[in-house]
Amino acid sequence: xxxxxxxxxxxxxxxxxxxxxxxxxxxxxxxxxxxxxxxxxxxxxxxxxxxxxxxxxxxxxxxxxxxxxxxxxxxxxxxxxxxxxxxxxxxxxxxxxxxxxxxxxxxxxxxxxxxxxxxxxxxxxxxxxxxxxxxxxxxxxxxxxxxxxxxxxxxxxxxxxxxxxxxxxxxxxxxxxxxxxxxxxxxxxxxxxxxxxxxxxxxxxxxxxxxxxxxxxxxxxxxxxxxxxxxxxxxxxxxxxxxxxxxxxxxxxxxxxxxxxxxxxxxxxxxxxxxxxxxxxxxxxxxxxxxxxxxxxxxxxxxxxxxxxxxxxxxxxxxxxxxxxxxxxxxxxxxxxxxxxxxxxxxxxxxxxxxxxxxxxxxxxxxxxxxxxxxxxxxxxxxxxxxxxxxxxxxxxxxxxxxxxxxxxxxxxxxxxxxxxxxxxxxxxxxxxxxxxxxxxxxxxxxxxxxxxxxxxxxxxxxxxxxxxxxxxxxxxxxxxxxxxxxxxxxxxxxxxxxxxxxxxxxxxxxxxxxxxxxxxxxxxxxxxxxxxxxxxxxxxxxxxxxx
Length: 548
Hints:
The structure is a single chain. By secondary structure, the protein is of the alpha+beta class. It contains 26 helices and 6 strands. Helix 8 crosses helix 9 and helix 13 runs parallel beside helix 15. The longest helix is centred in the first third of the chain and has 18 residues. The chain is globular and about 65 Å long.
């Protein structure tokens, strides 16, 4: 991991590392996009055109009186879990996010240092795809390797996780973690010369109705806040216990059962200081030795077909694929809350070729009607319509769209429409009406890209503009902006220039063109590793005007 500290011999390298941090905040980790496989949102949603310079321009804007009175709301994106219960992710309003970004940028060095935590397995670092956080906690191999390093000679394992971590964060506790509780309390008496953490607390609250309880799940800024708080918790436990934390999931290795109990007690006490609590249903102590991974993972790995052809390359027949997936379905019945089917599909999808790929595609498509969480896996299967009936697949995708609209699952609707778009097909008239009835901003935004759905989406947007509150506008901001960008509606925020600024810089959050915008060009120019040492780019405005 590269820390953002300036090497005395190479100031240019410091700026490159700092630049990565700022672009990660805006371009790559703004929307929920932190899983290793990047499957939270379909890839047609993108923030790559939302660059640091655009965020800074927005953050400098003067807020209207109504904004300062009500602040912001956000778009909710319901992502389905394995039990088909949704996890609500948040797409923060660009102006609200820009204000958070500006505060983090201003104090990035202090924030970076606060997040340094040897006991955290998910740490912010420079990833090749531009992201700052990649949550690879589902990677059993990585988790096992990390645990092997600290588990030697332990007799017991204590496991606990924070109950509803992001949803339970008390934003004022961020100040306690940064300053210390007593210092933060003293700061309440001196509002005029308040600590910068109070400002960070404020902009995080402002993004969600100014509520002090809960942070939006998904944006990098929320992960930073959680890491700061839990790093403060870890600091109090470090040196006393051997433990590792995966986001909000703790595992400690102890010499005695009494020590394991003491770890859970101490962890609970430290969390309570920040108004957090343990999930009692997931708190347990296990005698060692014990398998490092769940038994269903071992079973799946043991029956995965690994036949090789005459050249030694791993291959997969159609019958092998069917047998393996059948076994996974049986195993899933015994482990309904586990990620059995997702792991099973992931183990073979990249190896299926030709007719086998077509069969695996159809099998997973059928399963996806029951488990929408499998829909992103379809993209990993190298299947073309030469090996399946395209019309039948379109019919199935519309059925999947229908069931997910009925249950108001954002991800199921969006992924179904994403594949329909790729197949150059349309949602049915009945499904257009169902999607509109969900009032789901992200799904209706995708619907607006179809010929069959644009008229209904525009009518829905106009109805919102005509009679909605500021919060309701914000709850649909991504739909309103995309329609505004394509000149299908006027600016729904008459006292706010945010949409004009975004459009001026050609920001598109849905299906951005492959050709880079001028703002993206500037990012490449700024990050050019072949600049002479000490050479820094011209400012953004001069770059746009060609003054280089």
